[in-house]
Write a structure and sequence with these properties.
The structure is a homodimer of 159-residue chains. The first copy, chain A, has 159 residues and is α+β, with helices and mostly antiparallel strands. In chain A, 38% of the residues lie in helices and 19% in strands. In chain A, strand 2 and strand 3 form a beta hairpin.
Chain lengths: 159, 159
């Protein structure tokens, strides 16, 4: 076994002896584990709020967009809010909730990883920076005491 | 438009005028955008290396496990290495590469998000801590200068 893996503690030490049937990663993937769900969240982070725009900008059919937006709203990542353009009937837009915003590190981690590994010498066509200081954005694994924590120093334990 | 979204800069300012057809998030999802790929990576982080263990511990068929392991190895997240148990024929195990380890924040971000939102009052059954100091693990969005960066202070720009 490689040393560069997480450390399983206590009754979790023998990975062959327990089932990850209540795993938070698996549970999250049950909500946002499709490409279209993740890309709808990307669009929400980029400011998209309207049904037609989600479908068009993600590049999915209206049926898929409707299903995903219904799931993401039902799960609590987006909130459906009425709006009315002048002379038009009332429509609904989709706004990020705190729960939806809190998924941001997961989506941005995919941005960073893809940018690093999937573009060859040319590099990715877009970059993320901190508005205040202009420095590049990174998604990092740290502990509450502020230490950067590599995978091998992470422990998994029963709650 | 909500103020709590990323800021699109320069030619990206009008989201309706460009297509995200070379998006790093979408490209990453092309590699690890299935539930089974993500859960195989989880298992690799927990120390799993052998084919049968990946299939059993993720809870997928051997056919799906074989397809995902082939894709993840082909993409460079895992490396196929021969091993031989005494008296057995040579087999192969799958070990994390640096590219595979670098995906860790994306997977752990799903762990943290799911733990926070998808368990009700009982909380998640497992937790992640820093081995050295025991503090909880968090996946955070920061800039190279060390500032914590909320979504609204992130800018997206052409490279």
């Amino acid at each position: 076994m490689s040393d560069d893996t997480a450390q399983l503690l206590g009754p979790l030490r023998e990975r062959g002896r327990w089932r990850a049937d209540r795993c938070p990663i698996a549970r999250s993937l049950g909500v946002v584990g499709t490409r279209s769900a993740m890309l709808i969240m990307r669009e929400a982070y980029y400011g998209t709020t309207r049904f037609d725009d989600f479908a068009g900008r993600v590049g999915i059919t209206e049926a898929v967009a409707a299903a995903r937006l219904r799931e993401l709203t039902g799960a609590g990542l987006l909130q459906r809010v009425p709006y009315q353009d002048p002379g038009q009937r009332t429509r609904h837009e989709y706004r990020l909730t705190e729960m939806g915003r809190d998924l941001c590190p997961a989506v941005l981690a995919l941005f960073e990883w893809g940018s690093k590994y999937l573009y060859g010498s040319g590099g990715a066509p877009v970059t993320l920076q901190h508005a205040d200081c202009g420095a590049d954005i990174h998604v990092t694994t740290t502990c509450s005491n502020g230490h950067a924590v590599p995978l091998r120093d992470i422990t998994l334990a029963r709650a």
